[in-house]
Design goal:
Layout lengths: L1 H11 L2 H17 L3 H28 L20 H7 L3 H4 L4 E4 L6 H14 L4 E5 H11 L5 H8 L4 E7 L6 H14 L4 E6 L6 H5 L2 H12 L4
Parallel strand pairs: 1-4, 2-3, 3-4
Length: 227
């Protein structure tokens, strides 16, 4: 009967139940467990398995390059960072409110570490997110222009609850990249949260993008409900 049960569980793709079945059957026999309790425990195993698989899938899709967390961030070595504020942000209310976060600072001050820690926290909490190096994102947007898939790409990026754009700095940008980037940020505005890390203060963004009217619009939207 156990073999038949395992075969059926494989067909039904109930891997969590399958992994716990033999152990739970032995436990039930030893403890004279009621059938309803046995079924409940097996279904709990399936639930935990699926939650873990969903988390692993979200982590894989997010493409986070480093296993950094907020717990590993060296707050003691970076007194310029407000630990209490970061811990408050880790509650992810900003994601619920569709707010943006912008980390501005010199290289080596921990911008990427904090941003990745918040992204990972969001993934652990069930949100969908994506990490991008700024140059990689802009290159991907530019490449999508060749086969006219930019609208689909932007639509896909707008489905993420949180997008982290890392190291927005002095990049070599084509006008088409700038337009696509502004369109992406415009469509995420007020609907999803974004985190940007950069070593450029806001006035320097005009030199980067070379489009004053568009930068004005970008900063107006990005800084609205922004931390």
């Amino acid at each position: 009967m156990n073999e038949k049960l395992h075969e059926l569980l494989v067909q039904l793709r109930l891997k969590g139940v399958a992994g716990a079945l033999d152990q739970e059957l032995k436990r039930a026999e030893k403890e004279a467990t009621p059938v309803s309790e046995l079924v409940y425990r097996l279904l709990l195993e399936e639930q935990v398995y699926r939650q873990n698989q969903s988390l692993l899938y979200r982590l894989k899709r997010a493409k986070i390059p480093w296993d950094w967390t907020l717990k590993t961030f060296p707050f003691d070595k970076q007194p310029g960072v407000n630990k209490a504020q970061i811990q408050q942000l880790s509650g992810l209310a900003f994601v619920e409110r569709k707010e943006n976060i912008v980390f501005i600072g010199d290289p080596g001050t921990g911008k990427s570490g904090l941003a990745i820690g918040l992204l990972r926290q969001a993934l652990l909490s069930g949100y969908r997110g994506r990490f991008y190096h700024a140059q990689d994102l802009l290159d991907e947007l530019y490449a999508s222009l060749a086969d006219r898939s930019t609208p689909k790409l932007i639509q896909r990026l707008c489905r993420y609850d949180l997008v982290l754009i890392d190291e927005l700095g002095y990049l070599t940008l084509k006008p088409e990249q700038i337009n696509a980037f502004f369109k992406l940020m415009g469509q995420r505005y007020g609907k999803k949260s974004s985190i940007i890390t950069t070593n450029l203060d806001y006035p320097e963004w005009y030199d980067l993008f070379q489009r004053k009217t568009l930068v004005d619009a970008l900063l107006e939207r990005l800084k609205h409900h922004c931390i």
